[in-house]
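I have been asked to look over a protein record a colleague put together. The record follows directly below this note.
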Amino acid sequence: MLSYKTIIALQCISLLHRANSRGTTTSELKTRIGRQHSFGIRRTMLAMIQAGWVVYRDNGRYRLTVDLHDKTLYDLVMAVDHDLRLDTHVAIGPLWGSDAADAVPNAILVDDNLGRIMTIILQSIALVYLTETPKDNQ
């Protein structure tokens, strides 16, 4: 459900959080995350710079500028992707049995339900902090 860019952003901020004030380079991120190419990392880091989460220093290192204790997964999705997209493909398949006569739609997303589904997802990810405990609970 999370975009490729958001997943890379999660991996990058985890590494940046560990690197603390030292920061890290694109090639270090690429190696630590296990990506073959750095394009996706650079594109994601650019989005995070534009959102004010990261700065790029003259020494070629990225540094985290936000306190992750105050940030949720929702905040990250909005910073990187600017919205949350739900795949609305209709999936129809057998719920039980293998005979076509027994086949029943098992995952039809009706337009009326999409709003409710999106609300539940957004409310859920707004509760997932990027660190173990929010700053208020420390």
Summary: Confidence is low (pLDDT under 50) at residues 88-110. Residues 4-133 form a domain with the Arc Repressor Mutant, subunit A fold (CATH 1.10.10.10). The helical segments are 4-19, 26-33, 39-50, 73-80, 111-125. The CA atoms of residues 5 and 44 lie 6 Å apart.
